Amino acid sequence: MLIKRPNRLISLSAGCVLLAGMGAATSVSARDLxxxxxxxxxxxxxxxxxxxxxxxxxxxxxxLAFKFFPSGAAASGKEMLAAVRDGMIDGGFLVxxxxxxxxxxxxxxxxxxxxxxxxxxxxxxxxDTVLTGCxxxxxxxxxxxxxxxxxxxxxxxxAMCKSEFASGFDPSGLRMRVAGEEIGRWVSQIGGIxxxxxxxxxxEAMERSQLDCVIGATSWMKSLSxxxxxxxxxxxxxxxxxxxxxxNVRDSVWEELTNEEQKxxxxxxxxxxxxxxxxYQQEEAEVRxxxxxxxxxxxxVSDDMKQKRQAFMEAQIERAAATASDRGVRDAExxxxxxxxxxxxxxxxxxxxxxxxxQYAALLKSEIYxxxx
Length: 373
What we know:
Strand content: 15-25%
Structural class: alpha/beta
Number of domains: 2
Number of helices: 14
CATH superfamily of the largest domain: Bacterial extracellular solute-binding protein, family 7
CATH topology of the largest domain: D-Maltodextrin-Binding Protein, domain 2
Radius of gyration: 21 Å
CATH architecture of the largest domain: 3-Layer(aba) Sandwich
Number of strands: 12
Strand order of the largest sheet: 8-7-9-6-10-12
């Protein structure tokens, strides 16, 4: 049996299993590893990461044991890439928008944010693109000693604001938290003022009136407690986060692992991804149910604003490729084309809107991981 990966073949023993009699030996030689995230433990990404790490422990019979450090305990969002590269931690949640010049090919996918209209589809398409259609993306991570396993996509972002907008949504002059250049461009285009800070700092910034709105997943009303400082949600998709590396391991650690341990890490990835996406969906549904009782208003936007959003999305194809080329990305148009093609592919594969978390994980495994590794 072979586990294959772009540019690399890893030979595995056929039918390898962990025998019960090896339990004592593996526990004695267990390798303790660390994983970091800048987000709090109750966040959907943290739940997904914890699932990924737990699955690795179970599938290796305890030979690999990860300790998870959320809430920036190991490194902040902006420091995470360096922390993994320099060996301070063995893996970490890497957000492309914090490193646009360090991993520019990967950031190209993130710059297509307004094309994320379904988080299940966009997540699968982004992972598929990196693992099977963007060797440059993998090379970038490897240059920073990162073995990429998975990216993810949030549900489409909306603006959660302090104002109730009694006369309708007017973004003029509003200081709005954004993630990356593209959503920043959108905010500037509609007359707002983009503020690029980690979402973990959004609550305090709104509480102190340093921000008027936070553009993000409405599930943050719960996971980041934004319902305590926001009065309204603007019902217009304003991009989303997609890309980066939610799940990974330091490449120098990966190279020291047994074939069985590498296989376990790969098989744990789609389960961690699925848990993350379905946690987001569950939180979004819960937030919408309780928002009314908390006095939070959902604000409709004008047809003119909807048309501006559509035009912005359509222009992203050319703009994302041009921005990537300016950052030194080779064949940027091909990366964009591959991502759009994968979006179309996964829209068909995920036509069943009632798909379960387990079915989604199985589809990621069969359609991506079994082919890429």
